[in-house]
Amino acid sequence: MQTAQDFRDGKLLRIFVDEADRRGLQPAYTAIVEFLRKRGVAGATVFRGIEGFGGHGEVHMAKVFSWLPNLPILIEVVDDWPVLEPLIAELEVMIGEGLLTIEAAQYLRLSKAKA
Q: What is the pLDDT of residue 53?
């Protein structure tokens, strides 16, 4: 059984982009996840929002009759700051328009024992 002392101090990096944002032929969120994977980040999860707005003030929402939705996308990453910090400048260039946030986080990595 794990206790609070087993948790490590780390950082939660949140990356906000739009569903329609692209990097070449692929969605920006796919390119970002692949970038993070290749750089050895422990993991990343992509969430699709149902409504939101950003710097332009345009509201993005899920509509029943929308052929091309442009929903907000959130990518969350938890890892140690020395792993994440060197990636920030490259992420800024990749994202172009969006938002990055960083927060303190305590985490506990759980994994199945390999037989």
A: 74
